[in-house]
Amino acid sequence: MKLLPHWVSRPALIALLAALAVLAVLPKALGLSVYVQNLFTETFLFVAAALAWNWMGGYLGQVSFGHSAMFGLGGFVSGRLLLAPHLPFPLAWIVGGLLAAAYALVWGHPTLRLRGPYFSIATIGVGEATRLVMTYWEEFTGGSSGLSLPITPGLKSELYWWGLLVMGAVVAASYALRKSTLGLGLLAIKSDVDAAADVGISPTLMQDIVLLLSGFTVGVCGAFYASYQNYIEPGDMFGFRTSISFVLMAVIGGVGTILGPALGAVIFVILRQYLIGSYPQLYLGIYGLLLIVVILFEPLGMVGLFFRVARRFGLVRPEVQAKAAVGGAASAREGGVP
Amino acid sequence: MSVILRAAALSKRFGGLKAVDSVDLELNQGEILGVIGPNGAGKTTLFSMIAGSIPPTSGRVLLEGKVISGASPRRAVRAGVVRTHQIVRPFQNLTVLENVMVGAIYGKARPVGARERALEVLEFCELRERAPQMPGGLTLASRKRLELARALATEPRVLLLDEVIAGVNPAEALQMADLIRSVREKRGLSIILIEHVMPAVMRLSDRVIVLDAGKKIAEGKPQQVVRDPGVIAAYLGESASATEAAAREAESTPTPASGSRAATRPTPPSNPTPFSTPKKDPGERQ
Q1: Are B37 and B212 in contact (CB under 8 A)?
Q2: In this structure, are B216 and B186 located in the same domain?
Q3: Which chain B residue's Cα is nearest to A59?
Q4: Confidence check: pLDDT of B265 > 50
Q5: What's the domain range around B134?
Q6: 20 to 30 A from A178, CA-CA: which of A57, A334, B170, B235?
């Protein structure tokens, strides 16, 4: 089959298409309740956002605690475009994503010269500064009273398929970024930025490209979230909690992998849904606990746990795990292969 | 013989310290040029400037008349100058093959056929059967060959080798020396070699330059250079240079180099003799 680039594995492509097809007919076939269907929609959204965060945090090893800046910006730009010029929502999402990407580049181009914890600390500053400015910029965000979006009947249910589309595109993009020749360069940068530069890679350019893509995608997710919620508020959209939830999803699922952040997002949405009604603040606490357990015992998260169990039962060969760890915790542990 | 690479009055100053002080250097086509000198003489700094990793404070590096210094390592690599690192730096999260593929893809921005080219280089460096392994499991000698393979995959014309022999056992050292020779013979590269293992430098190099305290103090055929009084002084320290200077004064044949050097070198050199096998670098973990 010459249609596909050599790095696309046919089983992976078929699995993705099959999963998308099943999910596409699921609500009609099973007659899902509105509640469950909305839960799916939220999951799609967070899977996309967690994967986009993972391009920075997992592939490049640049852990950002400031992705709420792009999430919020995408949401509010799109919200404003839906309110005043009454753009159709897919167009508003794309414009929101583009502005979020541009903003990401503005703060990212200088800060991406920092590596590791120094970059992470800088992103906390960026996220919090953005939140403060946006909270006081009432003409744009409506201040602390937020922004109510026009209500379109039937939109919330339609968003299920839009969410599926966005998620499918982001999963495919994650795969392409990871497996193509570009992905090899990203992992080289993650492992040793100076050695990568010495064989001809431009770390600045590569990191800017990835941040641009990540910022755009998270911006679109923010815009999607705005359409889904119909009401957005800067303290929530730009909040540190939003940033940290992307980090948590990716790390608990398995940073640097594709399945990991997706899995982490599913767990995040389910946990939140169960706990938010009874203990509104507890779900982040439980997530924090999970995070500690993961970092202490299984740095590759759920995916690492899966491989450990599979190896115990002789289902995979030992070297498979090493391969899965590529781009994962391998380099996080001071260069040792787990 | 034509000059392929030329460094003109290259200097690097770190604050008050002149790490490299106005060094001129010429590398001929197909030549192996050895760079020796005591620790801290500025050899690696010189390499970093030629490879574009750090910009020179003054002076420039020209590859066939075109300036390649002062921009980025990428510019140097695209032009055809690539370096290896004294302390091996494989990408720990990539397989041996993928490590070399990174060089093959990004060296000349040519992703097509990178896998095949990487395999060919691995074959050349006798690492073919290690291709699917992670670099963490390789011996130091193999990791040094991987470092070389990754550099070769960028298809350079000038190769800068930073201590690729030091730290390995004698048999592996011979193997590496053969490999370096065949890089020149079979791939037609010109090579600059920093090395502490003196027998290897003497046998491999066509020409040697000696750095001390950032300055070039000698240049010539290996056999001439090791007999140079200034070089002996740099390696053996002031006392030797003082006694020699005294001896020479008695013969009334003053050499300005060794005389001025005794005054400007307050600390004794850490490498006591040019012919000793070198100490292991702290970073070379095995």
Answers
A1: yes
A2: yes
A3: B93
A4: no
A5: 91-155
A6: A334
Do B28 and B58 lie in one domain? The reply is yes
How far apart, in Å, do the first and last CA atoms of chain B sit?
41
β-bridge mates for residue B81, sequence order = B158
B72 and B3 in a common domain: yes
- Which stretches does DSSP call E strand in A146-211? 147-148
For the cut 50, the answer to whether the pLDDT of residue A322 exceeds it is no
**Interval B137-143 mean pLDDT:** 90
DSSP label of A60:
I
Q: Which amino acid is at A38?
A: N
Please report residues of B whose CB lies closer than 8 A to that of A331: 92-93
Nearest CB neighbour to A198, from listed B53, B105, B111? B53
Domain's final residue, options B109, B127, B155: B155
- Is B27 within 8 Å of B68 (Cβ atoms)? no
In this complex, the residue of B114, B136, B154 whose CB is nearest that of residue A336 is: B136
CATH code: domain of residue B27:
3.40.50.300
Q: What is the pLDDT of residue A100?
A: 94
Please give the single-letter amino acid code of residue B151. Answer: A
Using beta carbons and an 8 Å cutoff, which residues of B are at the interface with A? Answer: 51, 53, 72-74, 77-78, 82-83, 85, 89-95, 98, 101-103, 105-109, 111, 114, 132, 134, 136-137, 150-151, 153-154
**pLDDT at residue A22, as a whole number:** 83
Domain count, chain B: 3
Using an 8 Å CB-CB cutoff, list chain A residues near B82.
Answer: 198-200
Instruction: Quote the pTM value.
Output: 0.81
Chain A residues in contact with B78 (beta carbon < 8 A): 200
In a domain? residue B276:
no
Considering chain A, what is the average pLDDT of its residues?
A: 84
This model of the complex carries an ipTM of 0.78
Instruction: Return the minimum-mean-pLDDT range out of A6-20, A179-193, A207-221, B7-21.
Output: A6-20
- Tell whether B30 is covered by a domain: yes
Any domain includes B169 = yes
- According to DSSP, residue B131 is labeled T
Of A190, A198, A330, the CB nearest to B73: A198
Q: What per-residue confidence (pLDDT) applies to A331?
A: 34
- Do A197 and B154 lie within an 8 Å CB cutoff? no
Q: Are residues B164 and B61 in the same domain?
A: yes
Q: Per residue in A93-148, pLDDT tens?
A: 999 999 999 999 999 999 998 988 899 999 999 999 999 999 899 888 888 888 88
Mean pLDDT of B125-129: 90
B64 lies in the same domain as B165: yes
**What residues are paired with B135 via a beta bridge?**
none
CB A78 within 8 A of CB A93: yes
DSSP for B213-252? TTEEEEEE-HHHHHH-HHHHHHHH-HHHHHHHHHHHHHHT
Task: For residue A322, list chain B residues with Cβ-Cβ distance below 8 A.
Answer: 134
Q: Which of B101, B131, B155 is the last residue of a domain?
A: B155
Q: Is residue B277 part of a domain?
A: no
Are B103 and B71 in a shared domain? Answer: no
Does residue B182 share a domain with residue B44? yes
Clarify whether residues B5 and B141 are in a common domain.
Answer: no
For chain B, say whether A183 makes contact (Cβ under 8 Å): no
